[in-house]
Amino acid sequence: MGTTQLESVPEPKYWHLRTVLTEALDSEFAVGEILPNERDLAARFGVARATLRQALEQLELEGRLQRRRGVGTTVAPPRMGVDVGTEQHTWPGAGEDAWQSADCTLAEPPATVAEALETDRAEPVHIVRRTRMTHGQPVAAELLYIPRSSVPELSAIDAPSGAARARAVLRELQRLELEGGESAVELGSAGADDAKALDRLPGAPVLVVTTRYHADGRTAALSVATYRADTCRLTFGDSGGVEIHQGPERRAS
Amino acid sequence: MGTTQLESVPEPKYWHLRTVLTEALDSEFAVGEILPNERDLAARFGVARATLRQALEQLELEGRLQRRRGVGTTVAPPRMGVDVGTEQHTWPGAGEDAWQSADCTLAEPPATVAEALETDRAEPVHIVRRTRMTHGQPVAAELLYIPRSSVPELSAIDAPSGAARARAVLRELQRLELEGGESAVELGSAGADDAKALDRLPGAPVLVVTTRYHADGRTAALSVATYRADTCRLTFGDSGGVEIHQGPERRAS
DNA sequence: GAGTGGTCTAGACCACGGT
DNA sequence: CCGTGGTCTAGACCACTCG
């Protein structure tokens, strides 16, 4: 097919830039390498910085670039596959993939959560906040909503709140032998709290995974986990996921 | 409003705007209602249009708004749950949720696809292009890669290409009684082709679902489906999905 | 043709990371 | 301190939809 001719319907500059940069990334840059700064790049391509930034935003959204204020723009490694489909991933693991419990409070859930939990909306629930680490990097921030009826054995005196309390609640929950239930994935943007936990700026794109856990036919807990969309590929099913959608393109001569 | 005070750590204007607009959407607007145009809104909030647009982009990413050139900005309905986890969704259904086969070609797959299919990369495969419609709207554009060895019975003369050929290939494939395999979800941006099929502009955010199908222990097909991230919530597991993550209620106009 | 959102420019200043 | 990316401005023009 034809290339390099004038277009009856010219594509936007930032889109063309994205294409050019994508090819450059595939062929001329190594993972971790830092790109020239935005002002130089813009000058080199003969566009305003805002236009250049529009192209960079695209590439960051696609997980090809990583930008950090005060540092620079670097070539991102391929997204890591993060298991989300099985129950094994739910509990504190070890080594390269684990949850770190951060906090636990007892409060009224948002209306939408109460509805999914099938509880009175005024009834307080345990809310566990934890972070999922993979290869030393935070990949997800989760809020676990647990009705008090799900963990009746919990001794209230153990720890009033904080990480110790969170671990106590999770220990009780784990005894229920939850069945992983339905889950859903949608695009969202990180709120201030999540952004801090994920080491991103507010508004950063995230994949929100909501999962309902069952035990004894009841809804025992609800998880709302926000995964970094730039660095994560969520995998469901047995394997570590299908290796698609990244890396060098075909060269059309 | 508008008479708030200085902040020790001032949040960006566009982020504050996003918050204000979110609350306004929750309380003062009904689904489908059109907002004032961007120039008016910017003036009303005392910011430049670019800043206002940054806030609108956030809200569109979150599925709260829908913007169409030449028309205006409207309040988006809650995202629709789209089943992606079971095999049932794979075949042409009927009524409100169905695939429309569009085309079929025989060509060399991209290197990454060939790898996942465990075929020689120079070996041509069937490539079926189809679109998933839900409630009359396009929600996904899919490329199905099928090695010729998976559908040996296909009579090459039936239809050389086009929609008829696509249906013939799918019919053969369906006879294999595929087992749904592993799948992965990641954020991407729509290419020119996908954008047209999804009725969006190039670069629109999409959720890319790659699924590997098995039959007789072999990889029989690979699907790369791009779902509109603004309108879709992908659901896995039995139910129609968990109803979370969308704000309060409506109001009559 | 009027009105909408989409693209683009050429500046400015700010917040942060490293020195 | 300097250099980086992040935010913001006030314009301009373009592409699209619709009456």
How do the helices and strands line up, and which of them pair or pack?
Two copies of one chain form a homodimer.
Chain A: H1 13-28, H2 38-45, H3 49-61, E1 65-68, E2 72-75, E3 80-83, E4 97-107, H4 111-117, E5 125-134, E6 137-147, H5 162-175, E7 179-189, H6 192-198, E8 205-215, E9 218-228, E10 232-236
Parallel strand pairs in A: 3-10
Antiparallel strand pairs in A: 1-2, 4-5, 5-6, 6-9, 7-8, 8-9
Helix pairs in contact in A: 1-3, 2-3
The structure holds a DNA duplex (19 and 19 nucleotides).
Structure explained in plain terms:
Two copies of one chain form a homodimer. Chain A is of the alpha+beta class. The first copy, chain A, folds into two domains: 13-75, Orthogonal Bundle (Arc Repressor Mutant, subunit A); 82-244, Chorismate lyase, CATH 3.40.1410. Helices cover 26% and strands 32% of the residues of chain A. Chain A has six helices and ten strands. In chain A, the strands form three sheets. A six-stranded antiparallel sheet of chain A has the order 4-5-6-9-8-7. Chain A has a two-stranded antiparallel ribbon with strand order 1-2. In chain A, helix 1 packs across helix 3 (49-61). The longest helix of chain A has 16 residues, at 13-28. The radius of gyration of chain A is 22 Å and the shape is elongated. Residues 1-7 and 245-253 of chain A have low confidence and may be disordered. Strand 10 of chain A pairs antiparallel with strand 7 of chain B. The first copy, chain A, binds a DNA duplex (19 and 19 nucleotides) through helix 3.
